[in-house]
Amino acid sequence: MGMGVGEAIVTAARRAVATGAALVVVPASGGARMQEGALSLMQMPRTIIAAGQVKDKGLPFIVILTDPTTGGVTASFAMVGDIHIAERGAQIGFAGTRVIESTIRETLPPGFQRAEYLLDHGMVDIVVERKDLRPTLGRVLRLLRKGKPARGNMLTGPVPHGAKRI
Predict the structure, then answer these.
(1) Residue 93's domain spans which residues?
(2) Tally of structural domains, the chain
(3) Are 67 and 113 within 8 A, CB to CB?
(4) CA 140, CA 45: separation in Å to the nearest integer?
(5) Closest CA to 78 of 133, 27, 5
(6) C-alpha span between 107 and 97 (Å, rounded)
(7) Cβ pair 109, 101 in contact under 8 A
(8) Which end of the chain has fewer CB atoms at under 10 Å, N or C?
(9) Three-class SS of residue 93?
């Protein structure tokens, strides 16, 4: 996660707040870009603040966890969503298995840092196959919008010419 990703998350959050829309992010990253040093590390608090602004407005922040979602991404915006949807079998964690095992001097359970394990332990809300991500997200957004007027986006409002409703 470099400066570009941080700026994109902040911009998306501002737009979600301005338009009253949900913020949906799809991380797939090994973490911070060490070439950018401290500037990359600063993206962690920036993205947390941006997610907080979306939540402060009462808007949903949905994270779709893909393989892999690790490092600073997991330590920041990827794990503060209102709803976490994970791709089946996705690796999700902060540090690698060897690093954790050498730090705690214990062997980790089978499947540790996989979507299914995190679902069983309350860190993920839904685990689905990649082919089912789009309809699952559509259902979640429709449930969250129940009783609220449509804002005209692809999931809840009028479908623009040439587009398909999911």
Answers:
(1) 3-143
(2) 1
(3) no
(4) 27
(5) 27
(6) 9
(7) no
(8) C
(9) coil
pTM (2 d.p.): 0.83
Tens of pLDDT along the chain (166 residues) come to 788 889 999 999 999 999 999 999 999 887 656 667 788 888 889 999 999 999 999 999 999 999 999 888 888 899 999 999 999 999 999 888 888 999 999 999 999 999 999 999 999 999 999 999 999 999 999 998 875 655 544 444 444 444 444 4
The one-letter code for the residue type at 21 is: A
* Bridge partner residues of 25 (DSSP): 63
Residue pair 2/31 in contact by the 8 Å Cβ criterion = no
Distance in angstroms (rounded) separating the CA atoms of residues 123 and 112: 12
- Asked if residue 153 is part of any domain, the answer here is no
- DSSP per-residue string spanning 41-67: HTHHHHHHHHHHHHHHTT--EEEEE-S
Judge whether 118 lies within some domain. yes
Distance CA 62, CA 133 (A): 12
**How far apart (Å, rounded) are the C-alpha atoms in residues 93 and 89?**
13
Inside any domain, residue 162: no
CATH of the domain at 29: 3.90.226.10
* 112 within a domain of the structure (yes/no): yes
